[in-house]
Automatic annotation (TrEMBL):
Region (Disordered): 192-235
Domain of life: Eukaryota
Name of the featured protein: DNA replication factor Cdt1 C-terminal domain-containing protein
UniProt keyword annotations, A-Z: Cell cycle
Domain DNA replication factor Cdt1 C-terminal residue range list: 251-349
Pfam families per record: CDT1_C, HTH_CDT1
Family: Belongs to the Cdt1 family.
InterPro entries: Cdt1_C (IPR032054), Cdt1_C_WH_dom_sf (IPR038090)
Length: 374
């Protein structure tokens, strides 16, 4: 059979040639952006080929078929491409190291690859015709006008193969698909991945065993021992387990009651009011210093302040933040316990004031606070 010419091809083979041309265009764009040393991911390449071809969605088997035709042609050894599996569904097209078509080239030879594809397709077509014993015959050319059609001329140059409706589908179905080789790095990592998967399975099994309800295992007896003896042996064991659980429950209750008794006999927990009093006693030296500074700017031995003004002064002068309630508690502790004569709180209806008598300023504050339990 002579080499295939575009005018002699059926529509299915014309579409296949167009698909291969679109595939080469998409691959050329990939190499233009990423370089020929970068493997082309088949998922991205299929999407690009679909956009270039615009006939239908290109599939993974379509690309395998295109490379398979290149491999099985007369120049199949010169095919520069092969498919490599990187695992996790990633398959890439790579360039062979010893490919003569890409040796020393930085771009694709699309025309040469398209001719190689045509040669491979022509070779597979000839082989299929021989295997199917399809005979070639000349096609009769009808006359123009009336009358019977012109007889076939056996000397005409153009010869075409007679095909029925199913022959082309059979031919396309038997076209070879390119093999997918496993990447070297994936092969090297396979033992480690299998080890990790084994550990994961063991972990899941251990978790399931832990969640499963525990079943009572009967005690294993001798082979010739009757079943009744095993049942009698299991009953005392169950009774011992029940007795141990009851004793443990009783011991736990005794420990709880003992802790409650120890808490009652020990020192009582201070109440919130007692805690507020202790905090006020601890702030007493700093509050006395603020009161001395306030009185230094006032004439006379007795100085009075409105409660609101004094509380605001204490809040602005004490280093640690203090609320109005805590400041008022400090003033009350000073007036009632620490320095009753020095500080006094006077209330007249809704008006409240604090009076400071500088003649009664206490001298030994530390001993007084220790005596009060600060």
């Amino acid at each position: 059979m002579s080499p295939i010419a575009p005018g002699q091809l059926p529509a299915e083979l014309v579409n296949l040639l167009a698909l291969h041309s679109s595939f080469l265009t998409a691959l050329s764009l990939h190499y233009a952006h990423n370089g020929t040393s970068t493997p082309a991911d088949l998922r991205d390449l299929i999407a690009s080929t679909t956009l270039v071809w615009r006939q239908r969605k290109v599939t993974y088997d379509d690309v395998r078929l295109l490379i398979g035709v290149l491999d099985h042609g007369p120049s199949g050894k010169n095919n520069p491409y092969y498919l490599s599996d990187y695992g996790r569904g990633k398959i890439c097209i790579e360039i062979k190291d010893d490919s003569p078509m890409m040796s020393g080239m930085t771009h694709m030879n699309e025309e040469g690859l398209q001719d190689m594809f045509k040669e491979g397709l022509d070779t597979l077509w000839s082989q299929w015709c021989t295997s199917q014993k399809v005979m070639a015959r000349p096609i009769a050319v009808p006359k123009r006008g009336r009358g019977r059609p012109k007889k076939a001329d056996f000397k005409q140059a153009r010869m075409e193969t007679f095909l029925d409706d199913t022959s082309m589908s059979k031919f396309l179905a038997q076209l070879p698909l390119a093999d997918v080789t496993t990447c070297d790095s994936l092969t090297a990592l396979a033992p480690a991945q299998e080890k990790g998967r084994k550990r994961l399975r063991e972990f899941k099994e251990s978790v399931q065993q832990g969640r499963a309800p525990k079943k009572t295992r009967p005690s294993a007896g001798k082979e010739n021992e009757p079943a009744l003896a095993q049942t009698q042996q299991a009953q005392p064991v169950q009774a011992k387990i029940t007795e141990f659980a009851a004793v443990r429950k009783t011991n736990l209750l005794d420990r709880i009651l003992a802790k409650q008794e120890a808490a009652k006999s020990g020192p009582a927990t201070p109440t919130p009011a007692e805690l507020e009093r202790r905090a006020a006693l601890q702030r007493t030296p700093e509050v006395l210093g603020v009161l001395s500074l306030l009185c230094a700017n006032r004439p006379g031995m007795r100085v009075s302040f409105s409660t609101t003004t004094l509380l605001q002064a204490l809040q602005g002068s004490i280093r640690s933040p203090i609320s109005k309630e805590e400041a008022m508690k400090c003033v009350e502790v000073l007036a009632n316990e620490v320095a009753p004569g020095y500080v006094s709180v006077v209330s007249m209806g809704s008006i409240s004031s604090v009076v400071i008598n500088q003649m009664m300023r206490p001298t030994d504050i530390k001993s007084r606070l220790i005596a009060l339990g600060a």
